[in-house]
Amino acid sequence: MTTSAFIASFITNSSLLALWGALLLHWLLPIPYPIHPLRIWHRLALLIATRVNHPHDNYAQRLLAGYLAWALMWFTVVVLLFATSQLVWYPTLFQLTLLWLALDWQHTSQLCHQFTHAYNRSDKDQCRQLLAPHLNRNTTVLSLLGLGKAGAETIILSYGRHVVGVLFWYALGGGIAAILYRLAIGLARAWSPTRAQYAIFGYPAIRIAAILDIVPLRLFALLLSLGRNGQVAIQGLRQQGENWHLPGPGWLLVVTGYKLALSLGGPAIYNNLKMQRPRLGGRITPAALHIVQIQQLITQRLYVWIAVESLLLYFWSGIL
């Protein structure tokens, strides 16, 4: 194939064009976190929960309310997106825009850099401030070592859900699937059962998110395991892969922990109550150097992920 033919085939492949266009736009024109449309979605979810989640209701009523509230919000957006897709003049630009909204690679990278600098200075207040918007647990009681572990887990899962998961669902269903995945993750975050008021109401959201996460995060965990300490990481998966309460994130944490010999998981305080979580990975408590190593490892594998996905989109036009 000549160069001109390759370029022509690239331009005519709308899925691939939207993918690289969204990645480029995301890095050149990132949406500031405080004004991101998904923040509006988060606040709307909290508002709806206050109306339909009644603590005095019985278990079945609260669980049903959780399913109905989730369906109301998510399927409303589904209808709006598919209706809009029939009206747009440039479908590729529409898919590109949705993927751009769904991606959150740069903010995760910035969080990693900011947290690493603060953690290296032993600035606990700054570390807590950086992690507070991303954690449902109480950050004020975390020690410096606890902040390091929480920061490592936050960065790993943020890359997994806000980049890997988004790109995976984009490959399967375009920009609509990518943004719908992020909205589902957003509902699980807003209604996390680790918060006392959502202990029952939030189960449907977290279960659906777990189903959507399991394939992309496990595939990426296997990709992470390749290379140095790969056998150790695979052995760790056999021993602890099913220990975590969520199957997709659990594999990511286990592989990263064993590959870099880092201690992840362990007890955490939610709503002033100590929750016992399994300990994963090695024995070294994450330090600033290890946070950098985590980012380097994940970023390198993300390039491979994007390259493989681009090849699939090129040859099969987005149909896996």
TrEMBL record:
The chain crosses the membrane at residues 6-29, 67-90, 167-188, 200-221, 302-319. InterPro entries: Cobalamin_biosynth_CobD/CbiB. Pathway: Cofactor biosynthesis; adenosylcobalamin biosynthesis. The keyword NADP does not apply. It is a multi-pass membrane protein. It is found in: Cell membrane. It comes from the Bacteria. Keywords: Cell membrane, Cobalamin biosynthesis, Membrane, Transmembrane, Transmembrane helix. Pfam families: CobD_Cbib. Belongs to the CobD/CbiB family. NCBIfam families: PRK08878.1. This is Cobalamin biosynthesis family protein.
